[in-house]
């Protein structure tokens, strides 16, 4: 069993946030010891990791709470949970697409300013045309970044 402080260190979620999650019903898996202090087990920490993932993908806390509730109800809610995750997957795919478009624009500005710096003036560079790269080129760039950032993963 893990104390709230230990869980905060393990997960990076502040004790305040962990208490808030408990208060709003996101962590029904949290038990209390004889003194009323929250205790987490390994499965609870795994559940917190999933809650964090969903939150980072932009899922509202009300939807996360609904998901947690469905989990507690058991197998009869598998369909609802599957539908929720399919919707969230689509939302994440749209976020990735938008991020890739933003990456393309940022890369273009980097290239433009490098050319302008070499030319000595921004006026000497055509900075309005963004050369479009296809999705595979952008995804390869993301993959290269991941390999550099997380070698051996």
From TrEMBL:
Gene3D superfamilies listed in its UniProt record: 1.10.1660.10
UniProt KW keywords: DNA-binding
A Pfam family: MerR_1
Domain of life: Bacteria
Residues of the HTH merR-type domain: 1-70
Listed PANTHER family: REDOX-CYCLING DRUG-SENSING TRANSCRIPTIONAL ACTIVATOR SOXR (PTHR30204), TRANSCRIPTIONAL REGULATOR, MERR FAMILY (PTHR30204:SF82)
UniProt protein name: MerR family transcriptional regulator
Organism: Lactiplantibacillus brownii
């Amino acid at each position: 069993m893990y104390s709230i402080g230990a869980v905060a260190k393990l997960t990076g979620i502040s004790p305040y946030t962990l208490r808030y999650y408990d208060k709003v019903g996101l962590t029904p898996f949290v038990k209390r010891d004889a003194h009323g202090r929250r205790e987490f087990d390994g499965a609870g920490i795994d559940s917190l990791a999933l809650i964090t993932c969903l939150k980072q993908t932009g899922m509202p806390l009300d939807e996360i709470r609904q998901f947690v509730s469905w989990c507690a109800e058991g197998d009869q809610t598998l369909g609802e949970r599957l539908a929720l995750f399919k919707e969230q997957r689509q939302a994440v795919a749209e976020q990735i697409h938008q991020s890739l478009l933003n990456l393309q624009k940022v890369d273009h500005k980097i290239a433009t300013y490098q050319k302008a710096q070499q030319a000595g003036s921004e006026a000497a560079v055509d900075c309005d045309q963004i050369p479009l790269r296809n999705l595979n080129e952008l995804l390869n760039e993301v993959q290269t970044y991941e390999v550099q950032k997380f070698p051996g993963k």
